[in-house]
Amino acid sequence: MGWQVVFHDDLQTLESPQADAAIMARCHAGYEAMRAFRTTMEMWWAVEWYRDVLYHDAYGTMIHSADFSETPGDAAKARVTPGWRAAASARRRSTTACAIG
User: Where do the structural domains in the chain lie, given as residue ranges?
Assistant: First the structure.
């Protein structure tokens, strides 16, 4: 099933670049603030809570992914996971240091 966007009158699945364009067209038309975003993932990334859950390697080449952009989907998990774990560990150490200090 994958990622889905719920509108008041429709449910759209983010399953292709064409679906992404359709979702963003709907968001751009209905919400002025959404016009700042080019893709659904970019829009969701702006919401801090989603950052820990926004990962998919189901199809295609990664886009809007900093150093990982252009990584083929079948290689994405192996390349991204070690960096994600290191970043998560660093955040935990930073949070702990702030809490103690």
Answer: 4-100
Distance of CA 52 to CAs 46, 49, 91, Å? 12, 7, 12
pLDDT at residue 56 in the model: 57
| CA–CA gap between residue 78 and residue 86 (Å, rounded) | 14
Token pair 């702030």 is found at 98
Alpha-carbon span 71 to 62, nearest angstrom: 5
Nearest to 80 by CA among 60, 58, 62: 62
Q: pLDDT tens digits, residue range 39-66?
A: 998 899 888 888 777 765 556 777 667 7
CB 14 within 8 A of CB 40: yes
Report how far apart, in Å, the C-alpha atoms of 11 and of each of 22, 28, 38, 88, 94 are. 12, 16, 20, 32, 39
3-state secondary structure 26-53: HHHHHCHHHHHCCCHHHHHHCCHHHHHC
